[in-house]
Amino acid sequence: LCHNTDHSKDCITTRRCSLCSRRRIEPWEFEVFFDPQELRKEACLLYEIKWGASSKTWRSSGKNTTNHVEVNFLEKLTSEGRLGPSTCCSITWFLSWSPCWECSTAIREFLSQHPGVTLVIFVARLFQHMDRRNRQGLKDLVTSGVTVQVMSVSEYCYCWENFVNYPPGKAAQWPRYPPRWMLMYALELYCIILGLPPCLKISRRHQKQLTFFSLTPQYCHYKMIPPYILLATGLLQPSVPWR
C-alpha cells in the first residue's frame, strides 16, 4: 500500500509504490542518527515529497546501503517512473549528515535533468567539513538553487512528530539537543557558502568516546559573517552601554 499523508491523516490507495510507502523510524534511531554531538558513520534520510499542486505529502525514510542514502533516493525516485521532463514536485530532505562532494554532484545532475523539481535540505551535521571537495560541493549546491540549512529546534520537533514512531502521548517528548551545537554547524555552513576557511573544529577522544567542538575564527570570519550569527555562537559579546 502507498500512504499519502497530510499531517493529520493517512490516505491509503491501492496502488503499490515502494518509494512512497511510509515508514516511521523508532525513537532510538532518531536519537542515534540525528544527535548533533554524535559522529555516527551511517547516514539516515527522512524525506517528504509534494507532487504538483497537490496538498498531500508523501513521507518515508532511508539509510545507507552500498551507496550513500542520497544516491539511493535519487535512483529509487527515478526508477518509479513518475518523473518526466515537465514533472513538478517539491522535495524536502532531513539528513543526519550533509552530502559528500560526490552526492552533491549527483544531486545537481539530477536537478538539471528535472527542472521542475525543487529541493530543500536540512542537515544535522556537516560531513567531513574540512575536506575542500565537500565544502565546494555544498557551495555548488546552494549556487545551483538548492536550499541547504542546518536543522534547528523546530526541524527536530517537526521530524519527531512526522517521522518517528513515538509512544502514544509522547508527541512532545522529542530529544532536546543543546542549540549551541546547531549554531556551530550553522556558522560553519555559512562559512562554506561564503567561501571562507573552516571555523569549526571537531575532535574526538576514542577512549571515552567524547566529542569536542571548538571555534577558531580568523579575521575574515569577523569581517564577513553577520554580527548576529557571531553573537549567537559566542564569538562576539554583546556590548553593554555605560550609564
UniProtKB/TrEMBL annotation:
Top-level class of the enzyme under EC nomenclature: hydrolase
A GO BP annotation: regulation of mRNA metabolic process
MF terms in GO: cytidine deaminase activity; RNA binding; zinc ion binding
Gene Ontology cellular-component annotations: cytoplasm; nucleus
Cofactor(s), names only, from the UniProt record: Zn(2+)
E.C. designation(s): 3.5.4.36
Ranges where the CMP/dCMP-type deaminase domain occurs: 27-141
Entry keywords, A to Z: Cytoplasm, Hydrolase, Metal-binding, mRNA processing, Nucleus, Zinc
Reactions catalysed, as given in the entry: cytidine(6666) in apoB mRNA + H2O + H(+) = uridine(6666) in apoB mRNA + NH4(+); a cytidine in mRNA + H2O + H(+) = a uridine in mRNA + NH4(+)
Protein localization: Cytoplasm; Nucleus
CDD domains: cytidine_deaminase
Annotated family: Belongs to the cytidine and deoxycytidylate deaminase family.
PANTHER family: C-U-EDITING ENZYME APOBEC-1 (PTHR13857:SF26), MRNA EDITING ENZYME (PTHR13857)
Role of this protein: Cytidine deaminase catalyzing the cytidine to uridine postranscriptional editing of a variety of mRNAs. Form complexes with cofactors that confer differential editing activity and selectivity. Responsible for the postranscriptional editing of a CAA codon for Gln to a UAA codon for stop in the apolipoprotein B mRNA. Also involved in CGA (Arg) to UGA (Stop) editing in the NF1 mRNA. May also play a role in the epigenetic regulation of gene expression by participating in DNA demethylation.
Subunit structure: Homodimer. Interacts with A1CF; form an mRNA editing complex. Interacts with RBM47; form an mRNA editing complex. Found in a complex with CELF2/CUGBP2 and A1CF. Interacts with HNRPAB. Interacts with SYNCRIP.
Record-given protein name: C->U-editing enzyme APOBEC-1
